[in-house]
Input
Amino acid sequence: MPYVNIKVTGGTEAPSTEQKAELIKGVTQLLANVLNKNPATTIVTIDEVNQDNWGIGGESVSVLRQRKA
Output
């Protein structure tokens, strides 16, 4: 029973419900194709992490996106 956890930043750039469904379907199919895993027992979770709680290069994603804008 494979378990895949996808983490993405939340907020304005969070994936839509449709994009999340596509990720779940695609990852499930990938595991079936590559590792012969049963899709019925494959678990995929998506966690949205607040941008203030995700850091890259010593700064939060919130700060990086504000600077980019």
In short: The chain has two helices and four strands.
